[in-house]
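Translate structure to sequence.
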């Protein structure tokens, strides 16, 4: 082997097969650096974002809460920012754990081409333990292969896929409420006092930001969710298409783009829902002022479409999923309305009860007057007022809030029906002509947005509303139990001081039976005296027109189907009837089309419709003494008012039982002022000849009293029962005071 002379210059190294490898490695190193910078930007900006949200939640909002400013709506300002923070912190933790575990696994998961590179070099590049030689390093690199090193799978793309649903659920709510939050911020700027409080809070909690209002922080989550696709796209641009992580990064970027698209669609639906769910209280003048040719034509088209649906000319668009959800919602709304009415009546009756103070009156009671006064005083001063306060706070007010919450979806459901009629009309036109205008396309999109929003939101709304209603009912039950417990405790204290409190139980019940027997005898004696002094009952005959109508109902449906309205009914829903008290109807069906047994289908002698079953009372026809004249009377089988005590069986005089009926009496005294009028005394029975005057006005009625005929005000008349089964009984009401 020839040796080289020391004076000869060293021969230049001829670049061989290593030169392309170096160039490719340098190129990979540059892509690696860009990729690493992009990943670091993702993690650092995520950490900064989470820190800013924590400042917003833990410092700014807490400071404003401590100020206790009633005019600032913190829930409207910050929306569900707590959920956003929770998801973002978990996402950041996952990012940091994934990248810090193997800093280069996202950057250098790439393929390698070239047949001349040996397998050990390829493994070293895969494991990230090889660097290209610099100009000052020897050309021959030494490698140390660690067989224990096993490459771990890339989790970056999977992490975005894992958090996709959570991110979409929290960010779509926040972004949908962002516009309303900005409106609140602008309204607070117009109030110098509130704006000063907000600026003081920002200067105290986050002075380094230099923010002058809350919009600086509120926009950050909106900006962050839109930046995820850009950050992932930047990483993707610096990742080789042959890299194992490339497809995962593509999926992650597509997922983030899909999230932003879904958020925008959700915002659009919410804007449509907000527009059409507002309940406007307009006067008749304002409603008429909104009428124009376009609105009249649109309403006419909807009405004709609805008529064609009912007539079966055109088929209805069926949506069984929505129909099921709407039925649940309407059932819930009906229950809330009825419960609210009952609780309102309960509170009013309780207030009337508290106005009476029997403990302050002189009571003719033997022995127990003092204990009764103390017990009644305790109930009226402490227990019942506190119970009423808690009932209003824990039951009535939440019930009112729930009722107000239901108004928005109710309005949106009604608007959906209107838009559905428009949608069907446009669809029919589109099938005929093949094209639609821009406004018609917008109308179709509006219906689809409302329908999609209702189908997606109504299940959750119904569930939350049912939970809300259940909590209200549980509160009502708990209050009733507490009331009963307190009353029982106070009663036991007072009863313990009575003389017979230590009497044996058999002796006590004997005393009770004897007291009830004496009270029953007194009551029977009073009833007998009452029957002797009261005038004979006068059965009110039917007018000729009413008699013909009743006979027509009997001939069509039979006498067993007759019912009488017990109180005025004002129809508030579709196909409901408006009826007056005392009007006679015939029952057709004991439920409506949806199976609700509380609404009955009746025939009012020409008009058919639905009425509440609780306002109908069975009636049967009774023959009067006049030939071919029939009277209307309540059914004797109707359950009468029950009492908390039962009178002992005692011999009772035989009383002539006549069929139950009603009679008309004068509720107030009236003095005739002209020859066409007749004077009345309060409580005086009379006969109504015509329930109107000659001009048809129902304010005056033609009556006959003591053989005299004349007109009296209709409002002075009242109908009372003439006789109950088993003899005369005291009326459940007192005659009103005389009007002046």
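Result:
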């Amino acid at each position: 082997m020839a040796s080289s002379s020391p004076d000869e210059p060293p021969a230049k190294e001829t670049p061989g097969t290593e030169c392309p490898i170096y160039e490719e490695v340098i190129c990979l190193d540059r892509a690696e650096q860009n990729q690493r910078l992009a990943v670091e930007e993702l993690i650092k900006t995520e950490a900064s974002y989470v820190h800013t949200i924590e400042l917003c939640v833990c410092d700014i909002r807490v400071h404003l809460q401590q100020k206790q400013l009633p005019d600032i709506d913190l829930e409207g300002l910050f929306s569900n920012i707590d959920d956003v923070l929770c998801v973002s912190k978990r996402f950041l933790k996952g990012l940091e754990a994934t990248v810090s575990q193997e800093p280069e696994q996202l950057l250098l998961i790439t393929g390698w081409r070239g047949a001349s590179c040996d397998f050990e070099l390829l493994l070293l590049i895969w494991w990230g333990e090889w660097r290209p030689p610099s100009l000052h390093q020897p050309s021959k690199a030494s490698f140390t292969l660690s067989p224990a090193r096993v490459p771990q799978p890339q989790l970056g793309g999977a992490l975005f896929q894992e958090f996709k649903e959570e991110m979409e659920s929290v960010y779509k709510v926040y972004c949908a409420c962002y516009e309303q939050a900005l409106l609140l911020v602008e309204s607070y700027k117009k109030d110098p006092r509130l704006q000063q409080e907000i600026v003081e809070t920002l200067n105290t909690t986050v002075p380094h930001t230099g923010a002058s209002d809350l919009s600086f922080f509120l926009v950050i989550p909106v900006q962050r969710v839109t930046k995820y696709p850009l950050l992932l796209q930047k990483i993707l641009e610096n990742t080789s298409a042959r890299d194992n992580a490339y497809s995962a990064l593509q999926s992650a970027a597509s997922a983030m783009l899909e999230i932003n698209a879904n958020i925008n669609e959700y915002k659009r639906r919410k804007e449509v829902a907000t527009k059409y769910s507002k309940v406007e209280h307009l006067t008749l003048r304002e409603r008429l002022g909104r009428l124009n040719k376009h609105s009249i034509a649109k309403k006419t088209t909807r009405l004709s479409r609805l008529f064609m649906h009912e007539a079966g000319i055109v088929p209805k668009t069926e949506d069984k999923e929505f129909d099921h959800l709407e039925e649940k919602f309407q059932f819930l709304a009906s229950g809330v309305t009825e419960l609210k009415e009952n609780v309102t009546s309960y509170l009013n009756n309780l207030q009337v009860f508290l106005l009476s103070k029997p403990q302050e009156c002189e009571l003719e009671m033997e022995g127990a007057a003092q204990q009764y006064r103390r017990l009644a005083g305790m109930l009226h001063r402490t227990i019942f007022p506190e119970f009423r306060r808690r009932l209003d706070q824990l039951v009535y007010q939440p019930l009112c809030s729930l009722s107000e919450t239901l108004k928005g979806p109710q309005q949106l459901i009604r608007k959906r029906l209107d838009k559905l009629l428009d949608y069907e009309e446009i669809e029919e036109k589109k099938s005929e002509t093949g094209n639609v205008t821009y406004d018609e396309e917008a109308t179709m999109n509006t219906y689809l947005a409302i329908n999609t929003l209702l189908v997606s939101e109504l299940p959750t709304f119904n569930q939350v509303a049912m939970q809300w209603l259940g909590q209200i009912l549980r509160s009502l039950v708990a209050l009733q139990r507490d009331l009963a417990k307190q009353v029982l405790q106070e009663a036991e204290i007072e009863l313990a001081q009575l003389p017979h409190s230590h009497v044996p139980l058999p002796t006590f019940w004997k005393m009770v039976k004897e007291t009830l027997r004496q009270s029953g005898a007194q009551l029977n004696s009073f009833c007998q005296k009452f029957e002797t002094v009261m005038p004979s009952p006068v059965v009110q005959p039917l007018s000729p027109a009413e008699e013909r109508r009743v006979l027509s109902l009997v001939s069509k449906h039979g006498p067993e189907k007759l019912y009488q309205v017990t109180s005025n009914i004002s129809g508030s829903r579709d196909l409901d009837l408006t009826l007056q008290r005392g009007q006679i109807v015939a029952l057709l069906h004991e439920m409506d089309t949806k199976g609700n047994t509380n609404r009955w289908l009746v025939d009012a002698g020409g008009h058919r419709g639905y009425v509440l079953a609780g306002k109908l009372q069975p009636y049967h026809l009774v023959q009067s003494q006049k030939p071919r004249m029939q009277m209307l009377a309540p059914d004797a089988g109707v359950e009468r008012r029950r009492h908390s005590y039962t009178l002992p069986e005692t011999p009772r005089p035989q009383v002539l039982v006549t069929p139950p009926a009603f009679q008309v009496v004068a509720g107030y005294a009236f003095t005739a002022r002209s020859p066409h009028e007749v004077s009345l005394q309060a409580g005086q029975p009379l006969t109504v000849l015509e329930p109107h005057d000659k001009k048809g006005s129902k304010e005056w009625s033609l009556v006959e009293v003591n053989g005299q005929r004349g007109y009296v005000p209709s409002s002075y008349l009242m109908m009372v029962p003439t006789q109950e089964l088993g003899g005369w009984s005291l009326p459940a009401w007192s005659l009103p005071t005389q009007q002046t």
